[in-house]
Write a structure and sequence with these properties.
Two copies of one chain form a homodimer.
Chain A: H1 7-18, H2 35-45, H3 53-66, E1 70-74, H4 77-87, E2 95-99, H5 105-112, E3 116-120, H6 131-141, E4 142-145, E5 148-151, E6 157-161, H7 173-183, E7 188-190, E8 198-199, E9 202-203, E10 210-214, E11 227-231, H8 234-243, H9 268-278, H10 281-299, E12 305-307, E13 314-315, E14 321-325, H11 333-342, E15 348-349, H12 369-377, E16 378-381
Helix pairs in contact in A: 1-10, 1-11, 2-9, 3-9, 4-5, 6-7
Chain lengths: ~400, ~400
Amino acid sequence: MTAQLNIGEVVETVRGVVGVADSVALHEPEFTGNEKKYLNDCIDSTFVSSVGGFVDRFEAMLCKHTGSGHAVACVNGTAALQIALQLAGVGANDEVIVPALTFVATANSVSFLGAVPHFVDSESRTLGLDAKALAERLDAVGEQGSNGVRNVQTGRRIAAIVPVHAFGHPADLAGLMEVAEAWNIPVVEDATESLGTLYRNRHTGTFGLLSALSFNGNKIITTGGGGAILTSDHELARRAKHITTTAKLPHRWAFDHDEIGYNFRLPNLNAALGCAQLEQLDDFVKRKRRLAGRYRAAFSHVPGIKVFAEPEGARSNYWLNALLLDESEADRRDELLGALNDAGVMSRPAWTLLHELSMYRECPRGFLGVAEGLARRIVNVPSSARLGHA
Amino acid sequence: MTAQLNIGEVVETVRGVVGVADSVALHEPEFTGNEKKYLNDCIDSTFVSSVGGFVDRFEAMLCKHTGSGHAVACVNGTAALQIALQLAGVGANDEVIVPALTFVATANSVSFLGAVPHFVDSESRTLGLDAKALAERLDAVGEQGSNGVRNVQTGRRIAAIVPVHAFGHPADLAGLMEVAEAWNIPVVEDATESLGTLYRNRHTGTFGLLSALSFNGNKIITTGGGGAILTSDHELARRAKHITTTAKLPHRWAFDHDEIGYNFRLPNLNAALGCAQLEQLDDFVKRKRRLAGRYRAAFSHVPGIKVFAEPEGARSNYWLNALLLDESEADRRDELLGALNDAGVMSRPAWTLLHELSMYRECPRGFLGVAEGLARRIVNVPSSARLGHA
């Protein structure tokens, strides 16, 4: 007989890891580096907006940290993903394969292009898209044609595949890239949660044709709001910069634009904050990994629940630590969430699965049983870098 | 016989107004208030992103300054206009009437919704949409139907009218509102250039159903990048906040979203800058109006050119001062632009008219002769508030 989950024990165990302060946030940023200095420098320069040295510096630092050939800073991660998809060739009435277990912005970015998300299952090992489920789904509905892969059930083109590195854990990039290459469908990585995460010693976001990062306030580093597109393709990077800056043609004075462009550039003010934050990324990763280790150790003997650990071959940033209830305890998730939050330990479930949201209910999808099982069992617990102090 | 334009005299006259420093920007921001203090406060609070007190404060200050019932801060003016149009009912395959003489973002916001810009002429008196041309165009192509006004030539619905307050001068709001009301088409004001501008003692942006402001780096106040939606309709304001913040439903922990929402909220960091800037708006307007007065006086006897003055009933913010070449001198515009920029006086022409850009060439349009005449003759000259010192 399996020992039963004891809610009080779980709350106490989390408390033991994060400390006994009154209230603990799920994830809060830390500004103990050059944040104020760079912001003040930015104000002194008067270049707070679309032009200024911090944007260039931030982009160069992102390249250095990720090993990406190019980085194009954007106003946020959603905008970055939208443009990355557009540059990968996604257009109106195409389909894009995404997991159901992800933040809603993954699917919204697809919708903004007039395209339709197509949901494929996740795997328990990575919390990301399942390469085997992807291959099976493509075998079931895909047909190679002159214009790429067609979904024979809907008649639409399947224009891209978007692995999401959920909570900072890398998806099975090797497996997914293999399927994508076999079908010749471009991969755009949603790396909005995985800055600092390596897969086989290479940074997530550098495997697909393009990828998107996010620097929202709840991420491992923040620019207030911000994101970036990564790519190693010089021409795609040039295009990304062009269409995120209103597609204006360089000229001494004329205002000519050669296509419909976006106002998606990151302001220099936000990039200034980003430079200061990025200087501390390695330290944040180190402390977040230490915190994850403490959660794992503390929960190793707690019955009915375990801590999700990075998959093989990964070095995760552990953006958000995830507790995983045993299947038999899944119906006690909300009871646990209530108890944790009542105790001042901010906690949350995984996102509501995207195919369960009203606007995505009618989208094409394969079997999603694994994602459904995971969503019922995940509880994210406080994960700020400061909680991983030495 | 008319006296001829003397390029050297124009350059010297501008130099006389702006001072003899080496190089003068077209428009630069000024950070001599609480900018650093509020940014540092924001960092100390750790709330730099989507949650934080500066956003609420900034929105309240915008309401006070404009007299609008509600203000919803956004990531930039383009996003604000896009959402304002969506909330006014604009959808895919609708048409939206806009002037051709405006920044490209006016039309791009329409395009982002899958709608099509429909260009109507401007008037020399205001540089904005011409109420008479609008009425004539609607008489020529409009037809009332059960679903609103239909363009009989294209079959599409004409879903909104967007007056733009070009360079900070109010369009003929009385005339335009009268035509719009007669046809029952909602008006969405593009007030991105006119913060601080009154029309008949009421702030621009409070006449239409909704309007958009911008706080880009080149505007009268800046948040780095930012914008806002104004409306006096409580329900529209609630909807604006909802769909600019990913349409998330309030819940203690669950991530449910009830429609396709945007990540268009203004970060708290940028709102902090905005609060400091808005405290100085009245002073900026005063100095910019003083500078405009100096331009007018200095050019009163220069042949071949004049300074555009606010139309009757307006109190303009004179965002960008505009020189207007006589019709007979229009072909010397680029010569003048070259001479001014060579002399270190940053100057620019009006925007390339939108119907002349490749992506908008095929859009429906009326006669645009006045806009074409104005675009050939406008030269914007340095207009920073600091140039209007006492």
